[in-house]
Amino acid sequence: MKQLENKVALVTGGGSGIGRAIAVLYAAQGAKLLVTDIDEKGGNETVSAIIAAGGEAVFVKADTSLSDDSKNAVDHAVQHFGGLHIAVNNAGIGGPLKPTGEYPIDGWDKVIAINLSGVFYGMRYQIPAMLASGGGSIVNVASILGKVGCAGSPAYVAAKHGVIGLTEAAALEYAKLKIRINSIGPGYIVTPLLTNALSADVMKSLETLHPMGRLGTSEEVAELALWLNSDKASFVTGSYYNVDGGYLAQ
Questions:
Q1: Domain count, the chain
Q2: Among the options 26, 121, 125, 156, which is catalytic?
Q3: By residue range, what is the domain housing residue 152?
Q4: pLDDT in tens, 181-190
Q5: Can you give the pLDDT at residue 202?
Q6: Would you say 243 and 221 are in contact if contact means Cβ atoms under 8 Å apart?
Q7: Facing residues of 59 across strands?
Q8: Catalytic (active site) residue 103
Q9: Helix axis angle, 118-132 to 154-174, nearest 10°
Q10: Residue 82, Cβ neighbours under 10 Å: how many?
């Protein structure tokens, strides 16, 4: 039997990168997918790939920084598939690169809105739907920068630290109500978020930050998320797992 057989899963930021890899893997493991993204083209491509492989999926355009969009995504999953059992709050942005004393206020507001408030908005509506479905599991995508700092990225670092704390608080609240909530911390992963923003030389330099000497792949992150969202992790909640090639061990 597939690990997510007969489960309904919602993945935010599923139009590319880590979100797409998670959605495709979950579908291959039997889940019915509700994929969201602000990128309609990317989101529909993810859904098409899932359907072509014999899975079930639908796309809903959603901006995670808008609470109404998060509610609409959950409502759509329940109406279309009959419930909600799994969620991955993955959507995020890098934001401007400036020291704190020069950081643009609008940049701060946008990063916090998407990377932190977006996770809260997601859980705010996912949790009631999961309670109505008899329980579930949530994975929030934080970062290695949810545990350590990084000069020039104060908003991103603050948001990702917040995601880990929010995950722990929510996990305690729902531990006895059959909902598990965990977070993961990818290191630097080869995704459009990086490749579209950084030069090849910078990408190469990032490899040296990881003891394994390379960047991670979206598929490697997806495998960790799958384990956490499956019954194999039935006694795991409130935890943070990094998938970082040894970055945080330094």
A1: 1
A2: 156
A3: 8-245
A4: 999 999 999 9
A5: 87
A6: yes
A7: 35
A8: no
A9: 20
A10: 10
